[in-house]
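The data are passed on as follows:
___
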Amino acid sequence: MEERKVMKMSSTVVIDPVTRIEGHLRIEMKTRDAETPTGTWTFVDKAYSTGTMFRGYETILRGRDPRDAWLITQRICGVCPLPHGEASIQAIEAAYGIESTPLTVLIRNVIHGAYYIYDHIIHTYLLIGPELGILAKYSPMVPPALGKEGIEKLNLGSSYAQALQIQRKANEIVALWGGKFPHIQTEYPGGMAVRPTADRIASTLARMAELWSWVAKVMLRDFRHILAANERIGEAVSTLLDVDFRGLQDLGASTGNFLSFGLFPDHDNYDDWLSLLDKPGRRKSALIHAGAWNGDSKPLDLNKIAEFVKYSWYSNESGLNPRDEDAPIPDKTKAGAYSWLKAPRYEGEVYEVGPLARMINTFGMKWKIPVRNPVTEEDIGYFEYEVLNPRGSVIDRVAARVALTLITANKMFEWISELKRYMGEKVTNYRENVKEGEGFGLWEAPRGALLHYLRVRYYKIDSYQAVVPSTWNFGPRDDLGQPGPVETALQGTWLPKNMSVPEICNAIYPEQDVDLSPIGVNQKMSWGDVLKPALEQLNLGRVNMEPANSSEYNTSLALTVIRSFDPCIACAVHLIRRGE
């Protein structure tokens, strides 16, 4: 937001912990006040992202059989175990010098495709959806606070509730091929421990038919409603604060640099996927490409990745590539440090990772995705979108998740159909343990670029490193003082002072036009007045209000920015302090 007249620094507002995520995240915001003709308003001046939890997976893995790593690393996260397992599998395969068969690549794409659909639905509706529904005055995405009656009669929470049901279909597909979910059991270095059967293929197709229809007809519809409301949000906030605010494209802008490792390799051209491990590349044969975008997508170079620790609680050397890093040396007393997360950088610059980075590196700034039923061939047209802020934003990140859900759902039918061609063929390239070796595994978790590095010495794991999406996005400042992507994105965010969620909604939508007669209330009410009793009956009347300087600041917009990156701090910190 562009303010008129900036006044002195005023407060420190803290969110600790950030809820509705995996792990422990603390956000500290230094504020500034801006005076406009309509009043004095508070905005974020500087933000500090702190990972408050430390864990020990790299330490746990040392000295173990390398083939155990893909099972253990899935336990890094209960939300995204599959991507960790896949990145680990690929690191093991690189260290062993073995290549997956085409059938293996297909089966893995099916498992991970179903997982992606599940994860993006969950994030869009349960993790960031409540904020979007409330901001856009769109009742289907608001949590069903009035229960079944509210869903049936007011449409309050209808899409939210449906999302809970439909995501199970995706998880059932994962379990069909992975043995269970979470923490699948059927992958193996060089192959799979499951084969395609007619029954398994038919069961997958039946579930995908339901999933595709829901994504195409509900998820796209809901996003279009959010997008349609965006201009109204911008106009209302601009009028209220007398600032220049176009809408959600001006909320959460980061650096404009986007990094992707690529996703869903071509089973007939796996050499293109592997070539990135030896030289810069784009993985253009994959469904989603690798690349480093800073105005244009450039080939990804692994050697340009480094992790900095000046503001992290480590006394390790700073600015090293993962292959050169040693075991973590924690130092909680380190002057100036404020996070257990490291600060990954690409070519010394701050890069955002995640769905938006994947879409931009693959399709650029304009997307046109066909919406054609793969079973009935019903043509619904296209999902078209042009990135509204080249530096990224809340609405652009949501759009990218919706787009990737549709792209993956479309592609699933091709992969499933291809499986029939490989029935009865070899599924595993087995190899005994190796004495020495090293390798990278590069994959995309739903939250963004994921790297695992493995070094084997004397048949055991000698070194293991994981650089994960939330380390990229939620890491602290680096040695040059550059704030991380989320720290950057929070700057300029409005923090309403002493205004509850219903009060903000009434300020944006003052008209009394919500018809409550279906539930026996014979009057129309404003959007905020409808939400107030629904929130209060759940003891959420002061939700997102944080105290500072004898006042309360509403952090809903700040949380919307944070959640647009889909934080996973359990993934982002991996060490233990010995002797404690």
